[in-house]
Amino acid sequence: MIAVTMLDATPVQMGLLLAAENLPFLLIGLPAGVWVDRMRKRPIMVSADAVRAVCLIAIPICAYFEVLSLPVLFAVAFGVGFMNVWFDLAYGSYVPALVPRDRLIEANSKLSISLSAAETCGPAVGGGLIQLFGAPAAILFNALTFVFSGLLLGGIKRKEDAPPPPEPGESLRKTIGQGLRFIWNDLLMRALTARLAGWHFVVAAMEALLIIYLTRTLEITPSVIGILFSVAGIGVLIGAALGERIPQRVGTGNTVSLSHLVLALVALLIPLAQGPKWVQLAMVGFAMFTWGFCAVTYQITNVSLRQALAPEGMLARINAATRFASLGIRPVSAIIGGYLGAYLGLRNAIWIILSIGLVLAIRGLMSRRVRELVDLPEQRTAQVDAPVAETAS
């Protein structure tokens, strides 16, 4: 919002801004996964919160001294993204240390409920702060929430066991290769990772254009945009509350496939939004609500599958390899989305991006390997050199 309303960013610059935030996953995601596997997870998360707070505080300080610019935003986005790598890898590997394997879906659902409550309230609060005090004030508030997060994580009483030391002669390159080979050799993990990469390609290209489309094409104010994102948060809240029941009713694989397809279909309402303002807001609001509901349903199930499949002591490097394959595509797709918006127009570009998403969702629905999965599969062994038989999934 700062880039669009204060610095008059173009679609290409918006793509570059999003790319700057996601570039660290491509640069350090793989070795970070190895290092996280060898370290306690909670100190990593607390440190990442502290550094992200410091990065974000730079924005209101630069705005106060009237030196805020797009290069400053690029630098802050890269710094926050760099720490996101460490926090997300540690976060995804910390949950199995707190709960038994048979409660992973329940645990991830409850964590998603707390996340969705924040996503319901946060955008509305942010939009109101932007409307009343300006976007830098909202960023200052955001920085304080990272401080609060670090304090809460630091207060967890349960002692985390020290990870086992690396085996003698185990190199960083070899360890990284284990995560990549596991994903490639396990047919189910390969299918899930490929689908996740396609998902992130579409989402990043869409995110590069969404704010600028809502602001300039539909002429929606920041406070109303905040409400629309809060509507998405309500969808996330409901999806998280049902995150354990839906796989039980329709099966784990069907949950992944159908949530992806429904999201892709309903998202088409965003470029379709025309006519009176209330009609536009209703169409975008319903699309955002469905997006939140389906996205969190997909995420809970996908993360739980990965946690269930990962061999003992390899979850962080598998998470890193998965994120490298999926999030690594986001900088490229964000820039592509920005250029499409610049040369084809925002609405036409969004049509193209979401049409690609629909094709990928239909293709994913045809994958029997995922669709026929009813329950969480058995945990894999650490042997990653030989391909895993398809019957194992």
TrEMBL record:
Membrane topology: Multi-pass membrane protein
Localization annotation: Cell membrane
Pfam name, any one: MFS_1
Record-linked InterPro entries: MFS, MFS_dom, MFS_trans_sf
Annotated transmembrane regions: 12-36, 57-87, 133-153, 196-214, 220-243, 255-273, 279-300, 321-342, 348-366
Residues covered by the Major facilitator superfamily (MFS) profile domain: 186-393
Keyword Membrane: yes
Superkingdom to which the source organism belongs: Bacteria
Keywords: Cell membrane, Membrane, Transmembrane, Transmembrane helix
PANTHER family, per database record: INTEGRAL MEMBRANE EFFLUX PROTEIN-RELATED, MAJOR FACILITATOR SUPERFAMILY ASSOCIATED DOMAIN-CONTAINING PROTEIN
Protein known as: MFS transporter
